[in-house]
Amino acid sequence: MLAIIGGSGLTQLSSLEVTRRQIVRTPYGEPSGALIFGRIGASEVVFLARHGHGHTIPPHEVNYRANVSALSQVGATRVVSVASVGGIRADLGPGTLLVPHQIIDYTWGRKMTFHEGAESQVTHIDFTDPYDESLRAALLEAARAAGEKIVDGGVYAATQGPRLETAAEITRFERDGADVVGMTGMPEAALAREAGLPYAAINVVANYAAGRGDSLHRIEFTHIEATLQGAMARVHRILSRLCGEVA
Ligand code: HPA
After folding, report:
1. Which domain holds residue 87?
2. Does any ligand 1 atom lie closer than 6 A to the CB of residue 183?
3. Distance from the CA of 119 to the center of ligand 1, in angstroms?
4. Of 4, 63, 109, 190, which is most buried by a Cβ count within 10 Å?
5. How many separate domains does the chain show?
6. Residue 84 in contact with ligand 1 by CB distance below 6 A
7. pTM for this predicted structure
8. What is the mean pLDDT of residues 72-90?
């Protein structure tokens, strides 16, 4: 079963025919909200709003372990994350969709592993390629079939938030090789790998990152909502294709 974790701009899936909701408890605490089960086309999917259904949980307070653990418990076999980002590269302006292939993690102080505590063995996961290549390919193919333009590959810089970055921080991320910046990609991706769940992401560029493009002097929030709304309609079409629906 496909799991979809929706971020800002995607607190519900309009294309989802909801069949039931389930509150799941985990050894790591409570997930961001009830899991929403339903169908897209012929496929059963489970949806979780990363920031809660009322968008009340900030990125640094999301219980990523509980979210991944809950999805795993209910039988998810792969996870697609939808997450908004700031575009660092000049060609990644607002409204761009991108399937990242790499991550640089600048977050700190988050619970980022299932393997801790006295009883846990020291465990190192391979994370050379943080995203699952066949799920990435499936997303790219679904976008192609839906006629939606999407960028294949990009380096995602995960920042702590909730504040946005300084222009100098963005320059540093760019020097490090980052193309987009967001606040929720980690530890989510690493926890999915620890849980053995193939994981890939669709990044939606909500704005140019600080000091770039029309965010040269400040990031204007007024346009972000409209940008996300338009882009999420395209994300829905891609997810419907991924689920085998020929729209
Ligand atoms: N920075 C970090 N996270 C984000 C941004 C940004 O500019 N836009 C959307 N999520």
Report:
1. 2-246
2. yes
3. 37
4. 4
5. 1
6. yes
7. 0.95
8. 97
Distance in Å, CA 39 to ligand 1 centroid: 30
Inform me whether the pLDDT recorded for 245 exceeds 70.
no
pLDDT at 246: 54
Residues 160-188 have a mean pLDDT of 98
Q: In whole angstroms, what is the distance from residue 240 CA to residue 247 CA?
A: 8
- Please identify which residue in the block is written with the tokens 């050379």: 128
Q: At 192, which CATH number?
A: 3.40.50.1580
Q: State the DSSP string of 176-225.
A: HT-SEEESSSTTHHHHHHHTT--EEEEEEEEEEPTTSGGGSS---STTHH
Residue type, 125: I
Burial class (CB in 10 A: 0-12, 13-18, 19+), 149: exposed
- Residue 247 pLDDT class (50, 70, 90 cuts): very low
By percentage, how much of the chain surpasses pLDDT 90? 82
Q: What spacing in Å lies between the alpha carbon of 210 and ligand 1's midpoint? A: 9
- Residues with Cβ within 8 Å of residue 72, at least 6 apart in sequence: 195, 196, 197
Does the beta carbon of 164 lie inside 6 Å of ligand 1?
yes
